[in-house]
Amino acid sequence: MTELKNDRYLRALLRQPVDVTPVWMMRQAGRYLPEYKATRAQAGDFMSLCKNAELACEVTLQPLRRYPLDAAILFSDILTVPDAMGLGLYFEAGEGPRFTSPVTCKADVDKLPIPDPEDELGYVMNAVRTIRRELKGEVPLIGFSGSPWTLATYMVEGGSSKAFTVIKKMMYADPQALHALLDKLAKSVTLYLNAQIKAGAQAVMIFDTWGGVLTGRDYQQFSLYYMHKIVDGLLRENDGRRV
């Protein structure tokens, strides 16, 4: 394995001494870069960009060519997992992501498959492998997933939401259905992140974007508990290196 030329980010995560604070940015590949806009136009739409390993690699690397960042982060989307479960992800202009088949009850949850990361999500693993190859050991690659709670908000609401009334109704009126969904998502995310690690991600993150809409007690029960389950199931090493 190629030695990293800049391992500052990984050393900081392991609580080892670093010379300066390592930096990466949320959405460091994105619309502020004219080259990103050109690549997205080439792809045709956002999900086509995510599903093309070469183009996903290109936009992952674009910010590193401009700025001395300490890590690359996989260009993808948190909704790849529910999309792979068959909910019919699409993007509505001005409204963001939507699902054609939102989850409304326990019967819907029971029908959801747990995606095979190397099959339904194989395009993500191909992107990870391509990015690692093209990074040539310059900086580490971060993989990621959404948290079960955050993914569930989109799956139950049918897309983006401001009030989260539908999932909160399920949380209080049918907690069994919501817990079943969160448990299935925790299993799916664990498999997904472990596959990213095996494909070459040197660190992985769980984004709990909408955890803040829960009370402290509900957060413990409906979000943190399931993230703990994921972390407990993650690989700690890959190819002889600490993840």
UniProtKB/TrEMBL annotation:
Molecular function as annotated in GO: uroporphyrinogen decarboxylase activity
Alphabetical list of Pfam families matching this protein: URO-D
Biological or metabolic pathway of the protein: Porphyrin-containing compound metabolism; protoporphyrin-IX biosynthesis; coproporphyrinogen-III from 5-aminolevulinate: step 4/4
Catalysed reactions listed for this entry: uroporphyrinogen III + 4 H(+) = coproporphyrinogen III + 4 CO2
InterPro entries in UniProt: UROD/MetE-like_sf, Uroporphyrinogen_deCO2ase_HemE, Uroporphyrinogen_deCOase
Residues in Uroporphyrinogen decarboxylase (URO-D) domain copies: 22-31, 142-158
Annotated Gene3D superfamilies: 3.20.20.210
EC number: 4.1.1.37
Record localization: Cytoplasm
Function: Catalyzes the decarboxylation of four acetate groups of uroporphyrinogen-III to yield coproporphyrinogen-III.
Subunit structure, as described in the record: Homodimer.
Family matches, as NCBIfam families: hemE (TIGR01464)
Protein name, entry field: Uroporphyrinogen decarboxylase
Lineage: Bacteria, Pseudomonadati, Pseudomonadota, Gammaproteobacteria, Enterobacterales
